[in-house]
């Protein structure tokens, strides 16, 4: 078990310290892990619309027709989005929301373009006063992200899906 923790921390440090993309007036949203873990920003997205689209899916799961035919009827929320671990209560109590606020502009460095998933793990990097930390793991290609997420779900608490960061062409 100690080896698994060591490897997890090593991979996270490598991912979290790898070169990032910095842009001008890029868009981000904020993630606050469960149990008051340290917040972090997800992005950059090239447009506010693209950021809001991914933030909406981080918050809520939508029916299968929402993506191809986005209408009010097709996009009614039916559960928690990809930022929430499986089994998290729905609807989410306001004090436990993981993605928060709205998209915001920033010139801060961000993640490299690609697909990511969220990992929320206990006690690997923080003391007992911060029992969970969160990270966006990636970047992956689309299919590789799904495989990595499935593997990680057996070893820790993850979000329920992969998401994209980068130019959404919107």
Structure write-up:
With 170 residues, the protein is an alpha+beta fold. It has one domain. Helices cover 24% and strands 32% of the residues. It has three helices and eleven strands; from the N terminus they run αβββαββββββαββ. The strands form four sheets. Strands 8, 9, 10 and 11 form a four-stranded antiparallel sheet that branches. Strands 3-2-6 form a three-stranded antiparallel sheet. Strands 1-7 form a two-stranded antiparallel ribbon. A hairpin with an 8-residue loop joins strand 2 and strand 3. The longest helix is centred in the first third of the chain and has 16 residues. The protein is globular. The N terminus is likely disordered.
Kindly list the characteristics that best describe this protein:
single chain; 170 residues; alpha+beta; four-stranded antiparallel beta sheet; three-stranded antiparallel beta sheet; 24% helix; 32% strand; globular
Task: Briefly say what this structure is.
The protein is α+β, with helices and mostly antiparallel strands. The protein has helices at 2-17, 48-59, 142-153, and strands at 21-22, 26-31, 40-45, 60-62, 77-80, 99-106, 109-110, 114-122, 132-140, 157-158, 163-165.
């Amino acid at each position: 078990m100690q080896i698994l923790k060591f490897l997890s921390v090593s991979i996270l440090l490598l991912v979290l310290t790898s070169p990032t993309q910095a842009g001008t007036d890029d868009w981000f949203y904020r993630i606050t892990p469960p149990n008051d873990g340290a917040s972090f920003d997800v992005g950059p997205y090239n447009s506010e619309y693209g950021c809001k689209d991914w933030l909406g899916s981080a918050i809520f799961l939508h029916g299968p027709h929402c993506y191809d035919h986005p209408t009010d009827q097709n996009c009614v929320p039916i559960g928690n989005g990809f930022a929430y671990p499986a089994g998290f209560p729905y609807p989410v109590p306001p004090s436990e929301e993981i993605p928060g606020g709205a998209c915001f502009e920033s010139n801060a460095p961000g993640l490299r373009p690609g697909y990511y998933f969220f990992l929320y793990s206990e006690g690997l990097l923080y003391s007992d006063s911060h029992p969970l930390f969160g990270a966006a793991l990636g970047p992956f290609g689309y299919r590789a992200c799904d495989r990595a997420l499935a593997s990680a779900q057996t070893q820790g608490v993850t979000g329920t899906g992969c998401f994209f960061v980068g130019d959404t062409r919107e």
